C-alpha cells in the first residue's frame, strides 16, 4: 500500500485493522482484546469496534462530529489495564501509523496518541 498523504475513513479503517491485527497477536495486548472482542476480526463486535475507533480518529484528527463516546470511561471498566499495556499500545499504534501514512501525518497521529495514552494512564490507573 502506498503511504497516504491525507486522512480518510477508508485509510483510517486500514490503520485500525492493521493495528488490531498486531494487537491481538501481542502477548501484552492480545488478552485484553480477545477477552472483550474475541479473536475473529470479522465478527460483528470487531467490525463495530473498528468503526468506533475510525469515528474517534476522524473526530480527533479532522474535527468531524463522528465520535460521541467517552474514550476514558470505556477503559475504566478494565481494571487489569497496566502502564505496560499503554506503553505497548503506543508502540504498536506508532508502528501501524508509520505503515499507512506519510511521515508528516504519522507524526501528528503519534503526538495525539501519546497525549491520549497519558490521559488514560492519569485517569484509569491508581498510581
TrEMBL record:
CDD domains: TrHb3_P
Any GO molecular function: oxygen binding
Highest taxon of the lineage: Bacteria
Protein name: Group III truncated hemoglobin
Source species: Sulfurimonas sediminis
Amino acid at each position: 500500500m502506498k503511504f497516504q498523504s491525507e486522512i480518510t475513513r477508508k485509510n483510517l479503517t486500514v490503520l485500525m485493522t492493521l493495528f488490531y491485527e498486531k494487537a491481538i497477536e501481542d502477548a501484552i495486548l492480545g488478552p485484553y482484546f480477545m477477552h472483550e472482542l474475541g479473536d475473529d476480526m470479522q465478527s460483528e463486535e470487531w467490525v463495530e469496534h473498528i468503526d468506533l475507533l475510525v469515528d474517534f480518529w476522524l473526530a480527533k484528527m479532522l474535527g468531524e462530529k463522528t465520535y460521541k463516546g467517552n474514550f476514558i470511561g470505556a477503559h475504566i471498566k478494565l481494571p487489569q489495564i497496566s502502564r505496560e499495556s499503554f506503553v505497548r499500545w503506543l508502540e504498536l499504534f506508532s508502528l501501524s501509523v508509520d505503515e499507512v501514512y506519510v511521515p508528516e501525518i504519522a507524526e501528528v497521529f503519534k503526538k495525539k496518541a501519546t497525549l491520549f495514552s497519558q490521559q488514560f494512564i492519569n485517569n484509569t490507573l491508581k498510581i
